[in-house]
């Protein structure tokens, strides 16, 4: 039987493509039976089919229509991920509603989200009674979170006097002191990796009393040189000494979010409330993040594609079993057994041991400040 290869079409914006589709990923995937093929966004997706899987981070009604038409013609193909599921993350209110759907019991740790409200107009913004439940400082974030540069423009607001510099619609999220450390949790199917990064420094009551302006920034965990706001604070912080969240705890949250949101490729940002050592807050969720920043991301993604290949081949065998059992084919039991063995052999040759749901996790050195688990 000829080797069954997985054909993955990737449809990405130029910037995303340049960062994610590295030669190292292409060559590793190819060596394990996976062909990553660029989808020309100027042509119809159907004209470039077939694909076993479509990996995408494109938006708009035309693209959604193309995906629907592709799925109708190739119902067994895998779409990573559903546009409807992805769109939930484009709104910073609906984004974090998934956290409320999680139930994790019998743990010492607790989790949730910071207090937040959405402001749609300037009148509400200056109406103190409209959001009197929030305490300063607050973080102002654009309501839309579509990955654009504009959606990353945020500000730490110290008092009411700075509100006139904000433009609704925005989300006001209560700032919680968290030791200047944020935990970024990357999810790729069943694989999870937690890393720690620098975040905004804590705000003292004294600083809150004297601050008269707001602090504008973009991505909290990747402050640009001109956005460094307290170098002495970071020097005293000792990021390497910061304790990681419990692996099993992060594992359960990742599993719960994956099922609640029906997404395979995302990351979420977690902070530890300085007032309570076992209280964690999820502050942001992003679809298809910058995986290339993860050491060994090529192996992680290739393992994920192999998992997809395994499941597709398993479904093909089960489908043939059903046909055989209903007497709609001339295949005898010996032929079916041989086909199943071929599938197992292909998986073994291309994707490791072929255990269902198994994804290899590489050991990480301490200097990487990372934790890897599977769910």
What features would you highlight for this structure?
375 residues; alpha/beta; Rossmann fold; D-amino Acid Aminotransferase, Chain A, domain 1; 2 domains; 6-stranded mixed beta sheet; 5-stranded antiparallel beta sheet; 12 helices; 15 strands; 34% helix; inositol-3,4,5,6-tetrakisphosphate 1-kinase activity; ATP-binding
Explain this structure to me?
It contains twelve helices and 15 strands. It is globular and about 75 Å long. The strands form three sheets. The protein has a six-stranded mixed β-sheet with strand order 5-14-13-10-11-15. A five-stranded antiparallel β-sheet has the order 6-9-7-8-12. It has a four-stranded parallel β-sheet with strand order 2-1-3-4. Helix 11 (297-325) runs antiparallel to helix 12. By secondary structure, the chain is α/β, with parallel strands linked by helices. The chain folds into two domains: 6-81 and 297-317, Rossmann fold (3-Layer(aba) Sandwich), CATH 3.40.50.11370; 88-287, ATP-grasp fold, B domain (D-amino Acid Aminotransferase, Chain A, domain 1), CATH 3.30.470.20. Residues 7-86 form the Inositol-tetrakisphosphate 1-kinase N-terminal domain.
């Amino acid at each position: 039987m000829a080797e069954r290869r997985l054909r993955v079409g990737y449809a990405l914006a130029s910037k995303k493509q340049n960062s994610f589709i590295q030669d190292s990923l292409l060559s590793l995937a190819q060596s394990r039976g996976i062909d990553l093929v660029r989808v020309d966004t100027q042509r119809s997706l159907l004209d470039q089919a077939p694909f076993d899987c479509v990996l995408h981070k494109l938006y708009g009604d035309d693209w959604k229509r193309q995906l629907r038409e592709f799925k109708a013609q190739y119902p067994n193909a895998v779409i990573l991920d559903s546009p409807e599921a992805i769109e939930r993350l484009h709104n910073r209110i609906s984004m974090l509603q998934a956290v409320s759907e999680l139930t994790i019991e019998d743990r010492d740790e607790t989790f949730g989200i910071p207090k937040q409200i959405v402001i749609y107009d300037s009148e509400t913004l200056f109406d103190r009674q409209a959001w009197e439940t929030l305490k300063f400082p607050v973080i102002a974030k654009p309501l839309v979170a579509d990955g654009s540069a504009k959606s990353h423009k945020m500000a730490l607001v110290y008092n009411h006097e700075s509100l006139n510099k904000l433009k609704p619609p925005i989300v006001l999220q209560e700032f919680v002191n968290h030791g200047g450390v944020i935990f970024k949790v990357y999810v790729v199917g069943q694989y999870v990796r937690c890393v720690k990064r620098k975040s905004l420094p804590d705000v003292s009551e004294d600083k809150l009393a004297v601050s008269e302006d707001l602090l504008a920034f973009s991505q909290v965990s990747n402050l640009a040189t001109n956005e460094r706001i307290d170098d002495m604070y970071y020097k005293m912080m000792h990021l390497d000494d910061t304790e990681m969240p419990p692996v099993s705890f992060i594992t359960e949250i990742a599993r719960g979010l994956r099922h609640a949101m029906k997404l395979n490729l995302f990351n979420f940002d977690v902070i530890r409330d300085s007032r309570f050592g076992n209280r964690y807050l999820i502050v942001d969720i992003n679809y298809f993040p910058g995986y290339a920043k993860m050491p060994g991301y090529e192996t992680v993604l290739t393992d994920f594609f192999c998992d997809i290949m395994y499941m597709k081949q398993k479904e093909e065998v089960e489908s043939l079993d059903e046909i055989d059992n209903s007497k709609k084919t001339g295949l005898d039991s010996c032929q079916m057994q041989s086909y199943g063995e071929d599938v197992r052999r292909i998986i073994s040759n291309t994707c490791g041991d072929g255990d269902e749901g198994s994804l290899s996790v590489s050991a990480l050195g301490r200097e990487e400040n990372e934790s890897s688990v599977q769910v």
